[in-house]
Request: fold
Amino acid sequence: MIAERLKDYARLMRLHRPIGILLLLWPTLWALWIAAAGHPPERLLLIFVAGTVLMRSAGCAVNDFADRDFDPYVKRTRDRPLAARRISPYEAIGVFVALALAALALALQLNRLSQILAVIGCAIAVTYPFVKRFFALPQFYLGAAFAWGVPMAFAAELGTVPKIGWVLFFAAILWVGVYDTLYAMVDREDDLKIGINSSAILFGDADRVIIGAMQLMVLFGLYLAGKEARLGLWYLLGLGAGALFFFYQQILIRGREPERCLQAFLNNNYFGMAVFIGLALDYQFRSSGV
Reply:
């Protein structure tokens, strides 16, 4: 009984699906590496990795609480613990509060500006599930929540958020807009039936073109950030690999089949990884004089 309940709590926090943690983590790592010129302090790295896991898990708990009356009618979400009534709404709120407090304890280890940004980021994450009820483009509100680790990383390392931090932040928001639109394409028919807003619904038949335009803007934003940081060939190779992953995603969504749209969404993990590897290698070889 206890084991089953713990399993349901883990599923509430999506620990069985780490893709969300990875997608949230990559922009934060980009920012940490650039802010620290390729050598982020171990303490900050551990705090931000742990904070990413905690806030993503907390966000999943509050999202399922907000969607508890909608999820049973969506094929992909009907088996979630709260939707299937295996745990109660009060339990979900309890899990959220515990995780949020743990994340707050981590934020208290950072400087004043980082703490202020952490409170703002938490507010964005908590309100997202409710904003999507009336906002036609909730993917971009989610983008702000998922990209919030970028200005926080710069603030923690430098005590301020320079221009490059905001360039990277907006590039990350656009990236979230890309992959969460792909994710929304999976549920488009169900969302239309129950009245949920999404960019996939708003974009309609222009979805692939608009996603392609956003992918180009993401690459351009990352290029500008790299130029500002004076990153070189290895970073550009990372962006080139990322561009190939974006192209592959366009191939996957040609027919808009839900399963292939989900594959395209999952493929974004490799985009984030490619950019980070290029960035890390650029700093590594620069510091070693290669």
About this structure: Residues 88 and 226 are 47 Å apart (CA to CA). The mean pLDDT is 91. The chain has one domain: 2-284. The radius of gyration is 19 Å.
